[in-house]
Specification:
Length: about 450
């Protein structure tokens, strides 16, 4: 042992330093295709044979795995590097225009997410229509039995907060169904000391709003490195006052590629302190509860609905359903003033990234417009409405769908996406069960 330690120390000193990954990003493994050349349909007849089928090079009896069919690699939105012939049977390919159009739809992406079973309703729904709950162990003081709590998990973006646990259950993304979770979820089967976390509804709503801000931050970073060469690839723009008036008067959004319209005015000063709130995405649960209590007690006016669906085109077909896009009101979308200020700041940053991308793509045009264009006046000024678009052209620059899904999940959580007397849901068969489910079961 005394002779071994000096040699180990010398080896460790001479060894090269390990290569560490920067900025804590997860390095994913390269996806390998299992698709191989199929040897063809085997024949089991004796006609034309001079030897047994067991003596064939690829016989289906002892080497049946050669005849298994595997899926090819999924197409990519955009191939940056040209393809190289490496001798494989399956190569990554770029999406067609039609596939890229499907990929840019948030509703198709949500419906294509993996199916999971809701523990409250016992219905199988896509993962994006559910909330993931996982047991987390909390340290206890001496003499107190250790306890586990069922907390929301996987709602925030994995780059900001990875999942805590591998074992979890799912409930429908609807806060009105949450009171029945304690009686429907088999807590004892998951853990003996498992209980529901306090203020679970407040925690889920807070994390859903935090996910919207996180998606805005990631989208801004992506667009900052993507030049805007085509006007059809514009992701976010501010509507003028005249365009906003048209939307309010006609109750329609005359933009066929619109996936969301957000009316987010800047936050006014506090009437008591005469100061504007500082933008902050991270808030304590106690502060959110206090904000909700104060707003419910002191609010004299009724808040607008969180979202309203408007048609995105004037062409009404009697055969096809009308394409609609949600209009989100910032006052109801983010009731907390610090978070609403952070939302407005994030949208302005995204607009600034779009302007810089446009000026990088056309430097001469951008400088001439900056010098000669007069200042907007009257109805030509910008409003507080931000239009979010997604199509096959925007998909080449950045993925807008995660932001649209984050907004829609917040809409579902507040209960505005599940069939009502005014607004009906068409994405689920027999969607009216949500209105009468609680009365029939309990």
């Amino acid at each position: 042992m005394p002779r071994l330690l000096p040699r180990l120390l010398k080896i460790l000193q001479d060894a090269p330093e390990p290569i560490t990954l920067s900025n804590r990003h997860t390095r994913y493994k390269k996806r390998v295709s299992m698709k191989n050349a199929n040897p063809g349909t085997p024949t089991f007849t004796s006609e034309g044979r001079t030897h047994s089928i067991l003596l064939d090079d690829a016989n289906p009896i002892t080497e049946g795995h050669l005849y298994n069919r595997h899926k090819s690699l999924p197409p990519r939105v955009r191939l940056v590097k040209p393809l190289q012939d490496i001798g494989e049977h399956d190569h990554p390919r770029e999406m067609t225009d039609e596939e890229r159009e499907w990929w840019s739809s948030p509703y198709l992406r949500m419906l294509a997410s993996p199916l999971r079973e809701c523990q409250i309703t016992r219905k199988k729904l896509p993962n994006d229509f559910l909330i993931r709950l996982a047991p987390v162990r909390f340290s206890a003081s001496q003499g107190v039995r250790e306890q586990q709590q069922l907390v929301p998990d996987g709602i925030e973006h994995p780059k900001f907060k990875p999942r805590r646990s591998t074992s979890a259950c799912y409930i429908v993304c609807w806060k009105d169904a949450l009171p029945y979770a304690s009686s429907r979820i088999p807590l004892r089967k998951m853990s003996q000391n498992l209980v529901m976390a306090p203020l679970l509804s407040v925690r889920i709503g807070y994390q859903l709003r935090l996910r919207v801000l996180q998606e805005l931050e990631l989208l801004t970073k992506k667009l900052a490195a993507s030049p805007l060469e085509d006007s059809a690839a514009t992701v976010l723009r501010r509507l003028t006052r005249s365009e906003w008036n048209v939307v309010r008067q006609t109750n329609s959004i005359p933009h066929k590629d619109a996936v969301a319209l957000m009316a987010v005015p800047p936050v006014n000063k506090n009437p008591e302190t005469k100061e504007k709130p500082q933008p902050s995405a991270q808030l304590d649960i106690a502060d959110i509860v206090q904000i909700d209590t104060d707003s419910s007690e002191t609010s004299s006016r009724r808040l607008p609905p969180l979202s309203v669906l408007h048609p995105v085109t004037d062409d009404i077909s009697p055969l096809l359903p009308i394409a609609q896009a949600p209009l989100y009101h910032g006052l109801s979308l983010f009731p907390a003033r610090p978070q609403r200020a952070a939302l407005y700041k994030a949208l302005c940053k995204l607009l600034q990234a779009e302007r810089r991308a446009r000026s990088r793509a056309h430097p001469a045009l951008g400088s001439s417009q900056h010098e000669k264009s007069p200042r907007a006046r009257g109805d030509a000024k910008g409003s507080h409405a931000f239009l979010l678009c997604s199509n096959q052209h925007t998909a080449k620059r950045a993925d807008v769908v995660p932001l649209a899904i984050a907004l829609w999940r917040l809409r579902m959580w507040e209960g505005q996406a599940y069939g009502s007397a005014v607004e009906t849901s068409h994405w689920e068969v027999d969607a009216g069960w949500r209105l009468s489910w609680a009365g029939q079961m309990y």
